[in-house]
Specification:
The complex is a heterodimer of chains A (332) and B (328). Chain A is built from 13 helices and no strands. Chain A has 332 residues and is mainly α. In chain B, strands 6-7-8-3-9-10-12-11 form an eight-stranded mixed sheet, sandwiched between helices. A four-stranded antiparallel sheet of chain B has the order 2-1-4-5, with helices on one face. The A-B interface holds A 229-232, 234-243, 245, 249, 252-253, 326-329 and B 55, 58, 60, 62, 88, 92-97, 100-101, 103, 105, 108-114, 122-123, 126-127, 159, 161, 172, 175.
């Protein structure tokens, strides 16, 4: 356990340079654009010079970029960063918009796991059969289908024709535990709210996860077959173990590469959310970031990037911890 | 020679591998009989079909391989059974319980994600020797003690990567013996180990054989080992048994040209020689094996008939057989 704590501290320390790096890059790209942010924020052409001047002082816009960056990060960490466009605290915005994105990502992740993994195992068990070929084609279609096209197609089928889904509103229960309604309603065993949330989110989640399902199925298939052809599987047969038990050995060994991919994919889903959120009208972090870019609100943008980066790093940390749970050879 | 009470008898076994390059006729009509209580050795160079033969005994051949013919009669306590006619579940009950295996490389034979204790326990559990895995892990301590594992109470909770090569192979032998099998098939059990550990493990195997009343089928390419531990030896070449004899007879009076060449290739420490002896030519491609005797392209005493007709099995005395036209 002491080893685990040392490992966690070490890993958390590596978060710092990574987060500084990503936020700095985004900030620099935004700040070097030949635009006049203070004027945009103050209302464009008709902005009064005094307001523009005050904005320039408030955000140190005439200082060199590293100084600007320093002040922005200081504001971010002391929770004094107010968006010059929405006039709200950035952290407050993030806490409002992030749960929507997280819910969307969780639903997408759920589809990837419950469809992708069994499909991959089936394809491995029926290797080179029709099913295996179908999974292969499905994976190819998955990665090459544009999300927006699939989204509109499914909206047409499930909303326009079948009326199976809801396309407006974001169900929020009156109570708050973690701040994520999906998780809160489950914790409270409030299945009515839960059903509402699912009804709103299942299709966007499916669309977002669609590309991942096929990819995961292929990886599960290949690593399952790798483990199945390993010596220890043959020895397990020679030991006279039942089929079920042999598959358990194979599956656990096959999960090691799958966990890696799932971890990376979770980050990818967060990043892929903007398009899905825009199409389905979900007020999530992705939409918030797109809005911030449109309004030249690079403070909100830098804050969001910081936050998404943090989530990504945490997801990878969880993957590393999971490794050690699955594989005793992994030591911290 | 004592009367042979057979434990397993192989008749005309044939195994093919269906690869993209063509059909590999890996085992082409192999027959032999193992007597209860003996150590029977299969020797031959890499790729001659020793391991495939051993695995085919309990139908452990995976695609693209297929057993194409023959019989494997196992003389169980309830009477003779043809193993090749059993279904998967009946075979499973025999594998690991009546006929156990020890594989060549203990590092890859053990599942890296489970402790050796667990792997011993589940082997016993699946054959109904213990009613719970937990009980099996307690019993595994005894199993490990039996194979002279140092500190078995601790080692039972070790993962394979925490053990040395020798300790891993001890665990594999322990798994093999955990259900008190009648026949132990040891497929090059010491090849992947250090020379010093090899000797220890062979001593252990022979000691266990005496204590547990085992019959051992030992597969090896090490002729020194053969001379030391085997009772009877079969020499394999390219999917055929070319000669079979009691060990002393084979070393004193080898008949088949391949056996002779093989014995000459063993370096003699008492004789100074400039270069090592080798057998000219290479092992044939088994997709298109040479017609007739498969050894004829490399044989120093090849005759016309060898090129066209497969030699019959000829008996020289009651326990020495050779497949060679020279003795017709």
């Amino acid at each position: 356990m002491a080893e685990l704590r040392r490992f966690l501290v070490r890993r958390l320390l590596t978060f710092i340079p990574t987060l500084v790096g990503v936020t700095f890059i985004v900030f620099v790209i935004a700040a070097i654009l030949p635009a006049d942010p203070a004027r945009v924020w103050a209302g464009g052409e008709k902005a009064s010079p005094e307001v523009v001047q005050r904005l320039i002082e408030e955000y140190h816009l005439n200082d060199p970029i590293p100084v600007q960056y320093y002040f922005i990060m200081k504001k971010l960490f002391t929770n004094t960063m107010v968006s010059p466009v929405t006039h709200r605290y950035i952290w407050q915005d993030l806490m409002t918009f992030f749960p929507v994105t997280l819910q969307l990502t969780l639903v997408a992740f759920f589809f990837i796991i419950v469809i992708g993994i069994p499909l991959g195992i089936l394809a491995a068990l029926k290797r080179d059969s029709l099913l295996d070929t179908i999974v292969r084609i499905f994976a190819l279609i998955g990665v090459s289908t544009p999300i927006f096209w699939l989204a509109y197609l499914l909206i047409y089928v499930f909303y326009v024709k079948l009326h199976w889904i809801v396309l407006a509103g974001t169900p929020t229960p009156p109570y708050k535990i973690t701040g994520v309604p999906l998780i809160d309603s489950l914790l409270k065993l409030d299945f009515q709210t839960f059903a509402q949330i699912i009804k709103r989110y299942w299709l966007p989640g499916f669309v977002l996860g669609f590309a991942g399902i096929g990819v995961v199925a292929r990886i599960v298939r290949n690593s399952f077959l790798d483990a199945y052809s390993a010596d220890f599987t043959e020895f397990a047969m020679a030991r006279g173990l039942t089929k079920l038990r042999i598959y358990r050995h194979v599956l656990r060994n096959a999960m090691i590469p799958v966990v890696t991919v799932l971890g990376l994919m979770f980050g990818g889903l967060l990043a892929g959310a903007p398009i899905t959120e825009t199409i389905f009208g979900l007020p999530g972090l992705g939409k918030y970031m797109l809005n911030a870019i449109r309004l030249f609100d690079y403070l909100a943008l830098t804050g969001s990037v910081f936050f998404v980066g943090l989530i990504y790093l945490v997801a990878n940390l969880i993957v590393d911890i999971l490794y050690a749970v699955i594989d005793p050879r992994v030591r911290y | 020679m004592a009367i042979c009470e057979p434990i397993i008898e192989v008749r005309n076994l044939k195994v093919n591998f269906y690869t993209y390059a063509g059909i590999v006729k890996a085992i082409d009509g192999v027959s032999f009989k193992i007597c209860r209580g003996e150590t029977y050795c299969l020797v031959g160079e890499t790729g001659c079909g020793k391991s495939v033969t051993a695995r085919a005994l309990t139908k452990l051949i995976r695609p693209p391989g297929r057993i194409e013919g023959g019989e494997v009669i196992y003389y169980s306590d309830e009477g003779p059974i043809n193993l090749l006619e059993l279904n998967e579940e009946e075979l499973r009950k025999i594998r690991g319980a009546e006929i156990a295996y020890v594989f060549q490389d203990p590092t890859s034979a053990l599942d890296p994600l489970y402790t050796v204790g667990y792997q011993i326990a589940e082997t016993m559990y699946e054959h109904g020797r213990v009613s719970k895995i937990k009980e099996g892990i307690l019993r595994a301590v005894e199993v490990l003690r039996n194979v002279l594992m140092p500190d078995p109470e601790k080692r039972v909770h070790s993962y394979p990567h925490e053990l040395s090569g020798g300790m891993r192979q001890r665990s594999v032998i322990g798994i093999g013996l955990s259900n008190k099998p009648k026949l132990l098939i040891a497929d090059e059990p010491t090849t992947a180990l250090d020379a010093t550990v090899q000797a220890q493990l062979m001593d252990l195997l022979m000691d266990l054989k005496r204590r547990e009343n085992l019959t051992i089928l030992l597969i090896t390419h090490n002729l020194g080992l053969v001379a030391e531990v085997c009772d009877r030896v079969a020499v394999m070449y390219a999917g055929n048994i070319v000669e079979e004899a009691p060990v002393e007879e084979l070393f004193r009076n080898p008949l088949h040209p391949y056996t002779k060449a093989l014995l000459r290739a063993v370096p003699n420490p008492r004789k100074k020689s400039v270069r090592l002896e080798s057998i000219p030519g290479t092992v044939p491609n088994l997709i298109n094996p040479p017609p007739g005797c498969r050894f004829h392209p490399r044989c120093p005493r090849v005759m016309d008939i060898c090129r066209s007709k497969k030699p019959p099995e000829l008996w020289r005395g009651d326990d020495h057989r050779v497949a060679c036209w020279l003795y017709e």
